[in-house]
Amino acid sequence: MTTLVHDAAAEAIARHAEPLPPIEDDAFGACFDRFADARVVLLGEASHGTSEFYRARAAITRRLIERHGFSVVAVAADWPDAAHIDRFVRGRQAQPYPADSFARFPRWMWRNAEMRDFVHWLKSRNDAAADKVEFRGLDVYSLAGSMRAVLDYLDRTDPEEAEKARARYACLTPWHEEPAMYGRIALMGKKHGCEDAVVNQLRELLDNRLDYLGQDGEAFFEAEQNARIVRAAEQYYRVMYRSSVDSWNLRDRHMFDTLVRVMEHRGAGAKAVVWAHNSHIGDASATAMGWQGEFNIGELCRRQFGRDAALIGFGTDRGTVAAASDWDGPMEVKRVRPSRDDSWENCFLRSAGPASLTEWRSPGRDDLRRALADTRLNRAIGVIYRPETERQSHYFDSVLADQFDAMVWFEETSAVTPLDAEAGSGGEADDTFPFGV
Questions:
Q1: Are residues 152 and 216 part of one domain?
Q2: Which of 8, 22, 285, 394 could form a disulfide with 290 if both were Cys (CB 3.0 to 4.6 A apart)?
Q3: 331, 418 Cβ separation under 8 angstroms
Q4: Does the structure show a pLDDT above 70 at 421?
Q5: Counting beta carbons within 10 angstroms of the beta carbon of residue 176, is it exposed (0 to 12), middle (13 to 18) or buried (19 or more)?
């Protein structure tokens, strides 16, 4: 461990940081029992391509499921792709990763060996239990996949209504594989928006709710959510070129609303674990994001659930990461630069040991909260990593005491292992470029 210098934050971290055992040790998950009283435990990541973050979240989630009754795992992935995994782990589909799932950039984010191992554990657990844990996707990008899912559902359930739905969705059909182009054309005034069509389709689906629920309630829930995604995605791609703040907020509002809807569908007492980037699960109001008008899932969960939401960030100093240099580029294993001296990561480097949990949610930690109430830089690596412009591309200001309830620290980390060859998908950049979070 690097020699501690005189710094109030680093000294407070040194007093409170609890060494963590190896991730594979059962004792690792047990260190997080203190958060089991929450209804929603949000587990972050400082990058989308770090093995330790995936494996640690899996270990924590296993513990929360096995010992504390958590029944939903919700991740920042597209709903139709996550539905393949959900059907697999609940015994309704033979494989979790068909060729067309998680096919768009960045494939490695969910098609990796670390994720596969967790999915197969969840399948084994569900096979042996009556209360099947769900696996759900929260994101908004699946315009084409969600349109297909709605039409497939109606083809099976109500062929006459399916033809009407095709007519409504025809407005978006020319752009459904490249929805960013629809937004660009709409912005330029060359295309009348399709908002009315997608809203009317969702309304029609809801008007027939009672009939559809009587046939198959689970299938209707999935179709309804896909219709909501089409509506949200149409709006998202219309606003993404006008305002990055509005598009970010629309996306995180959609993810939060989806989480709440999934928990309500699960029933009273549902408890969820959320996997998403630190920039989504940390409270945005304590960061430069919030200071420019953006909110996120973590902030919305705190508003909705109060202390029943636990926000746990993850951080590292150095190592390797799976990331691309440009949007839609190939995956590379890149070297993560050591953290800047003026960053929160550097505070943990100087005081938190090789692997540790530091939390300030419990009583009696006011000294730690005060010490973490400064504003310092915080690093965020998404699916794009550009070490040559790291300060501008990957650091932002935050007040750690209010951003999270705890920090999981790994001094050195390694890249995830992709399941298959990585290549670009040919799609346009979403508004998360260049951070990709």
A1: yes
A2: 285
A3: yes
A4: no
A5: middle
∠192-195-201 over CA atoms, to 5°?
130
Name the one residue in this structure whose structure tokens are 């300060």. Answer: 391
Instruction: Identify whether 94 is part of a domain.
Output: no
User: Going by C-beta distance under 8 Å and a sequence separation of 6 or more, which residues neighbour residue 123?
Assistant: 88, 89, 91, 96
- Map residue 368 onto helix, strand or coil: helix
Residue 314's H or E segment, with its range, is strand 309-323
Q: Single out the residue of 63, 66, 73 nearest to residue 40, CA to CA.
A: 73
Report d(CA 22, CA 348) in Å as an integer: 18
pLDDT of residue 5: 43
What are the phi and psi torsion angles at 24 (to 5°)? -75, -15
User: Is residue 123 in a domain?
Assistant: no
Coil, helix or strand for 409? strand
Bigger pLDDT: 3 vs 88: 88
Q: Is 279 exposed, middle or buried (0-12, 13-18, 19+ CB in 10 A)?
A: buried
Domain stop point among 248, 282, 310: 248
The predicted model gives 32-39 an average pLDDT of 98
Token digits of residue 184: 């660009």
Pairing mode, strands 309-323 and 40-43? parallel
Q: How much is the CA Rg of the chain, to the nearest whole Å?
A: 21
